[in-house]
Design brief:
The chain has 175 residues and is mostly helical. The protein has a single domain, classed as Nickel-containing superoxide dismutase (Four Helix Bundle (Hemerythrin (Met), subunit A), Up-down Bundle), CATH 1.20.120.400. Helix content is 65%, strand content 6%. The protein has a two-stranded antiparallel sheet with strand order 1-2. The chain is elongated and about 75 Å long. The mean pLDDT is 89.
Length: 175
C-alpha cells in the first residue's frame, strides 16, 4: 500500500474516532457517473439473435453421421450458452443502472420503473429458459422502455434507430 493511501486511511480513521467523519457523496462504489443502457440493449439483441440461430439450425437427418449430429448439438449448445450469458448480462446492466443511478426523485417522476425492472428480470429468465422468439423480442422491448426512461431522467430526447445487426430490431439512443 502506498504511503499516501495509508495516510488517507489513517486520517479517515482518526476523523471517525474524533466524531468528525468525512461526508462522501456517491451513487456507486466508484463514483464515475457513467451509465448507459446501450449494453443492456445489445445483450437483449444477442438473446434474440441466438434464438434466431437456434430456430434456423438444420437438424441432421436420421441417416446423418455421428459427426454431423455432434456438430449440430455443439452448435446448439454454444448458441444456448451465449444466449444465457447475454440474458444475464442484460439483467446485470439494468440492475446496476437501477440500483446505482436511479434516485428517489427519478422513481417519483417515473413510478413505473421498479415494476419494469422486475419485468425485465423475469423476462430475461423466461428468454433463457426457452427458445421462443417472442420471449426474446419482449425482453428487447422492455429493455428499450428502460432505456427511454433512463434518458428521460437525464432530460435527453431519444429516438429509435435500426440496430444494423443480423437480429434486426432497433436501439434507443439519445437524439
Amino acid at each position: 500500500m502506498s504511503a499516501l493511501r495509508w495516510y488517507d486511511r489513517a486520517t479517515n480513521v482518526v476523523r471517525a474516532l474524533a466524531g468528525r467523519p468525512e461526508t462522501v457523496y456517491a451513487h456507486c462504489d466508484i463514483p464515475c457517473g457513467i451509465y448507459d443502457p446501450h449494453e443492456a440493449q445489445i445483450a437483449a439483441l444477442t438473446v434474440l439473435r441466438m434464438d434466431q440461430l437456434i430456430a434456423e439450425a438444420a437438424r441432421p437427418s436420421d441417416g446423418a453421421s455421428p459427426e454431423e449430429h455432434a456438430l449440430y448439438h455443439e452448435k446448439i449448445a454454444r448458441y444456448t450458452a451465449v444466449k444465457e450469458q447475454h440474458a444475464e448480462k442484460a439483467k446485470h446492466e439494468v440492475r446496476v443502472i437501477y440500483g446505482d443511478y436511479f434516485t428517489a426523485d427519478h422513481l417519483k417522476e417515473f413510478p413505473q420503473t421498479g415494476e419494469l425492472v422486475y419485468k425485465i428480470f423475469h423476462q430475461a429468465s423466461k428468454a433463457r429458459q426457452g427458445i421462443a422468439l417472442a420471449d426474446a423480442q419482449e425482453l428487447l422491448n422492455q429493455v428499450q422502455q428502460f432505456a427511454e426512461i433512463f434518458w428521460k431522467t437525464k432530460k435527453v430526447a431519444t429516438r429509435k434507430i435500426p440496430s444494423h445487426q443480423k437480429a434486426g430490431g432497433e436501439l434507443v439512443v439519445p437524439a
